[in-house]
Specification:
Layout: H1 3-26, H2 28-31, H3 35-48, H4 55-78, E1 85-87, E2 94-95, E3 98-99, H5 102-118, H6 124-146, E4 152-154, H7 161-173, H8 179-182, H9 187-207
Antiparallel strand pairs: 1-4, 2-3
């Protein structure tokens, strides 16, 4: 794939998020079914921008996605990691009561956050900690609208401290052994994807 083709896909991704930010506010029932496909497309764009021989990076991305999914399954079944919560139907097909695409969002947030933070800090432990905090803050934003969008809901209404400690732990430890591969990723597309997610959920929090 040429550089121009990749850039066109990135521009289209930006358009998808901008239109989705408006569309969810105006007509959520129409736009909601597209959520799983948007996450799949986001991960596709993210991965095509990775370094030339990106097979190792892709495998790392998939392993982190699996670890995130495993944490979610344990979380839903036991309540030990994030608290007591259940998934709705807006995120598509579920296996063991967890939507498969949630694994992609874990991998996207973890990889994009580490790549972005690494641009400004060199110490591995500082990068992992700051990336985990950033990811948890993004989750804090998502939690404000997740129940409205039928993404997931907590038995107690809103998540407690338990949930955010769980996010910090998973976001910090799951990429620990893959750090050297992740930091070779593409900075610009990582930053853009983080900004798009923040803008999208901020607009829903403010206007939905």
């Amino acid at each position: 794939m040429t550089a121009n083709q990749k850039n066109y896909l990135l521009y289209f991704l930006i358009l998808v998020y901008v239109s989705g930010s408006i569309g969810f506010v105006m007509n959520p029932s129409f736009f909601s079914p597209f959520t799983p496909f948007t996450l799949l497309f986001t991960s596709f764009v993210f991965l095509i921008f990775q370094p030339g021989k990106s097979f190792k990076f892709t495998i790392t991305f998939l392993v982190i996605a699996f670890l995130g999914y495993l944490a979610e399954v344990i979380g839903v079944k036991t309540g030990l990691i994030f608290g007591n919560y259940t998934y709705g139907n807006s995120l598509g097909y579920k296996l063991f009561e967890v939507p498969l695409v949630i694994s992609i969002n874990w991998a996207l947030l973890i990889c994009a956050s580490i790549i972005t933070i690494k641009k400004f800090f060199n110490n591995k432990w500082v990068v992992l900690l700051l990336a985990a905090i950033l990811i948890t803050l993004i989750d804090l934003l998502i939690e404000q609208v997740a129940f409205k969008l039928d993404f997931w809901s907590f038995a107690a209404g809103m998540p407690g401290l338990h949930n955010y400690i769980g996010w910090l732990a998973v976001a910090f430890f799951s990429p620990l052994f893959f750090y050297e591969t992740i930091i070779k990723g593409h900075f610009k597309v990582s930053l853009i994807i983080l900004i798009l997610q923040i803008i999208f959920f901020s607009s829903l929090f403010l206007f939905y």
